Amino acid sequence: DDATSRRDLWVGLLKKRTRTSLRVPVPHTDGKHIDLECQQSGCEDYCSFHIKFTSDKCVLAGLRLSLRECRNEGSILPGKVALMAAIQTCETLGYLHQELFDAAKLPCGSIKENNNARVIGLFRDGMSYYMREQGFLPFISGDSNYDVCGPLKTWCSAAAMARKITIQNVTGKCLNLNSDPHSDPCFPHETLWQCYDKKRKRPDCQAMDILENAMFPIAVYDETWPKDLYLAAMMESWVRLSKGWHCGDAREIEILPGNGNPCDQFEAGST
To answer: What are 23-44's pLDDT values in tens digits?
Structure first.
């Protein structure tokens, strides 16, 4: 098909040349573009994104990962725009699978990268940053078949639990969340996300860090923490399929990028 032809042409070009360039339009701008430097391993721009290519997938190896190398701060793309531009580049070159390692961070005041966006999203509405923005789904790293249905079932199970966990449910810890008089106080009956939401509005970075640690308190699984919740918090490999996924025993559940929370569709189709 056309996508496969474009992909093969691009891979062939990279193999023939030691260096080339690729001009990429920036989404939602009036004619703005970025020029990626490309070698056999992939293409990059320090201010926006770095992508790598294999025979069948496009790996988003870094979104704004090398900002210290960016000489012009005015050229730095916002994270959402960089993500969109990277995906459009992959799709234009014929790659329907886009893969990434989820290291997204949420800010706290002037601190640009403070808390784990994947863990916070799990407790917020059950959506990671990349799931919410572009419909990425978790998969087991190294799974070339991209079986997202099993990991998604685990993720959705964890999300359902996470959104119900309150401050008073967190046993064995004294959560000192109200030391900053300038932020709204949290109460024992509130969920961890409700408290985090308060603390981020009038940034209390100390309380936000405490809440993140309460959401994901252990580095090694033990029986004191729900296993699905632990497994979901550890899901760092994510993949997007431009034409969407099908899950369920008869593959009757269609999950399309940008079509709301996939857990809503997954759970509805599983009943």
So the answer is: 888 888 888 888 888 887 788 8
Q: For the chain, how big is the Rg over CA atoms in Å?
A: 20
Contact of 195 with 165, CB cutoff 8 Å? no
Cβ-Cβ contacts under 8 Å for 69 (sequence gap 6 or more): 46
More confident residue, 144 or 232: 232
DSSP letter, residue 248: S
* Long-range contact set of residues 191-200: C-beta below 8 Å, sequence gap at least 24: 191/123, 191/163, 191/164, 191/165, 191/166, 191/167, 192/123, 192/162, 192/165, 192/166, 192/167, 193/120, 193/123, 193/124, 193/162, 193/163, 195/167, 196/120, 196/123, 196/124, 197/124, 200/106, 200/108
Q: What is the mean pLDDT of residues 163-169?
A: 92
Query: Which one-letter amino acid corresponds to residue 41?
Result: S
Angle between helices 117-124 and 192-201 (to 10 degrees): 120
Question: Which residue has better confidence, 110 or 140?
Answer: 140
DSSP 207: H
pLDDT grade, residue 165 (50/70/90)?
Answer: very high
Burial of 96 (C-beta count, 10 Å sphere; 0-12/13-18/19+): middle
Return the ∠ at Cα 83 (arms to 78 and 87), rounded to 5°.
150
C-alpha–C-alpha distance, residues 265 and 271, integer Å: 10
Confidence of residue 144 (pLDDT cuts 50, 70, 90): confident
Question: Which residues lie across from 238 on neighbouring strands?
Answer: 100, 138
Extended beta strands in 95-135, E state: 97-101, 105-108, 111-116
Cα–Cα distance between 43 and 11 in angstroms, integer? 12
Q: What distance in Å separates the CA atoms of residue 186 and residue 193, rounded to the nearest whole number?
A: 11
